[in-house]
Design goal:
About 40% of the residues lie in helices and about 15% in strands. The chain has 12 helices and 14 strands. It has helices spanning about 10-30, 35-45, 60-70, 85-95, 110-120, 140-150, 200-210, 235-245, 245-265, 295-305, 340-345, 360-380, and strands at about 50-55, 75-80, 95-100, 125-130, 150-155, 165, 170, 175-180, 195, 270, 280, 285-290, 330, 350. Helix 6 links the parallel strand 4 and strand 5. Helix 3 (about 60-70) runs parallel beside helix 4, helix 3 packs across helix 7 (about 200-210) and helix 10 packs across helix 12. The two termini are about 30 Å apart. About 50% of the residues are buried. The model has no long low-confidence stretch (mean pLDDT about 95). The structure holds pyridoxal-5'-phosphate.
Length: about 375
């Protein structure tokens, strides 16, 4: 049985509905910043219990717009060392300086302890990344620390559509949050992103930034250094229809995760990242840590060769300061050698999870992983 790393799921009904919506756009000539985008924004805001949402061209542009709206002006943003390139690059593009902080091995996210050590008067914001769709239970403590120091908490929720902690959705814990609709994400629009916030001034600013810094769609003056960050109506149609499936996608992904957890409980050589009490991950990823000494490359190639099974990409396989472009990036006070990030990046694998995965596929994955991990332990 072949199990791919990821599968993009659009049902027959959803594809038909998307084509209808695209046809409406083509007939009306309303191809960008139109009714589909507005419907997507309203539906997304409602689903995530936030007052405002702004649809943009990508998750990366959502991040950059939020940071531009903060007027960083050379100030610092605390970023976890194990995140996607764009989390730190957006800070630089927006005129800020990213500083890498270490993370918790239990959640792969910034810990309150690492944030507390990192907060200096130069820090304008902390970027909390909900790695794999898991919102850290330390999020309230992190928010409190930020509030005490007059620092803004910003969420990179690119992984976390519909994920919750304590019943509250990702996107509601900070000042603003960025989501991505890249094809592999739990909701896709082909390309696209969304900013959510409860701050009306930030909402107004984001709408200006996404459309060349103009203070009105039809005409207006250029009042900000914006960019071509609009979401087209075609992309909005795809995202709007896909968002309608979010709850069933999460239910399927959680069913798969529960099967994985049951099968891998007590397994030799591999330990799934647990879901802390109160946390409901959307299971964008199912990360697990290999025992120290187990060779990850060998583990993954045996899964592929012997079980026709491809692991999903790690989150992340190496921390940001290992990327050549970030070799000179600053670490935050207290971050030391980013020991935890180094370790969890080096030992992590992510089992494949699809929004339409069958129990048979999940059992094949779990059985194969058990066998290969046990073999890897025997070889160490
Ligand atoms: C995907 C992703 C982004 C960027 O989103 P794009 O839509 O691909 O631009 C940003 N941050 C994280 C953590 C991501 O996974």
């Amino acid at each position: 049985m072949h199990v791919p790393a990821a599968r993009v799921v659009f049902s027959d009904d959803d594809r038909a509905r998307i084509l209808e919506l695209v046809d409406e756009s083509l007939r009306s000539g309303s191809l960008t910043l139109g009714p589909h985008g507005e419907a997507f924004e309203s539906a997304f805001a409602e689903r995530h219990q936030v007052p405002y949402a702004v649809a943009v061209s990508s998750g990366t542009s959502a991040l950059e717009i939020m940071f531009r709206a903060l007027n960083l002006g050379g100030r610092e943003v605390i970023v976890p060392a194990n995140t996607f390139f764009a989390s730190a690059a957006a800070v630089i593009h927006a005129g800020g300086r990213p500083r890498l902080a270490d993370v918790s091995a239990a959640t792969l996210a910034l810990s309150a302890e690492s944030v507390e050590a990192a907060l200096t008067p130069q820090v304008a914001a902390v970027l909390l990344v909900h790695i794999g769709g898991l919102v850290t239970p330390e999020v309230d403590a992190i928010r409190r620390l930020c509030d005490e120091r007059g620092v803004l908490l910003i969420e990179d929720a690119a992984h976390a559509h519909g994920a919750t902690f304590d019943g509250r959705p990702a996107g509601t814990f900070g000042h603003a949050a960025a989501f991505s609709f890249y094809p592999t994400k739990v909701v896709a629009s082909a390309e696209g992103g969304m900013i959510v916030t409860s701050d009306q001034a930030l909402y107004d600013d984001a709408r200006i930034y996404r459309d060349q810094g103009k203070d009105g769609f039809l005409g207006g003056s250029h009042v900000r250094l914006g960019y071509a960050w609009r979401m087209s109506e075609v992309h909005a149609a795809v995202g709007l229809v896909h968002l309608g499936r979010l709850d069933e996608f999460i239910a399927t992904r959680r069913r798969v995760a529960a099967r994985y957890r049951e099968a891998l409980a007590g397994a030799a050589g591999i330990t799934p990242l647990p879901e802390p009490p109160g946390v409901v991950s959307n299971i964008y990823k199912f990360p697990a840590l290999l025992d120290p000494g187990v060779d990850r490359t060998g583990f993954k190639s045996r899964l592929r060769a012997e079980h026709d099974l491809v692991c999903s990409g790690e989150v992340y396989a190496r921390p940001l300061h290992h990327e050549p472009i970030f070799s000179q990036i600053d670490t935050a006070p207290g971050a030391g050698a980013l020991r935890v990030a180094e370790d969890v990046c080096a030992r992590q694998v992510c089992l494949p999870v699809h929004s339409d995965m069958t129990d048979e596929e999940a059992d094949h994955v779990a059985g194969s992983v058990l066998e290969v991990a046990a073999g890897a332990v025997a070889a160490t």
